[in-house]
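Box 3.1 A note on notation
Throughout this textbook, protein chains are presented in two layers. The first layer is the amino acid sequence; the second is a token string describing backbone geometry. Keep the layers aligned when reading.
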Amino acid sequence: MSCKISSALTYSGSQLDVGLNYFGLVVCTTAVAVVLRPASKHCRRYRNYAQSSWIPLTAGLFVLQIGADCGADAEGISAVWAAQAGFLAVGWRLMPAMYRPRPARLATAAALSTALGLTVYYAMVEDAITSVAHAVAFGVGCALSRLHRRFFQIHDAGGDDHQ
């Protein structure tokens, strides 16, 4: 098993894949950062860190992605944006107060639309294992959203506190 991280992160030079996936990464990462911006107002624990928690979240997803790329002799970063989409989708339900500001709603809608479009595109042009990887990554993001809410003890200021 050989692992060429540079090839994994650049799709072995495929400009189309690089463009599509890094666009998805920028849109989804921006949405996560925008949604978490007011997090400190809704936390009961670690208020100073909640707002910037998108940084270690994204870094951790990259570590998982590179590990998966090396372990499966694959390439790509799509698991990062797919997991971020899962984080946003579940967060919308679990932490609605953080999604009330218009910028958060718009960024989340853009991210989920982009992730859906990329997932459909890759389902049509790549092997089925790519769709499985996207679904697994989305599920990881859903789980991370639940863990994030629990870790920071995020509550809904409007009184609609979901467990």
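Confidence is low (pLDDT under 50) at residues 157-163. The radius of gyration is 16 Å.
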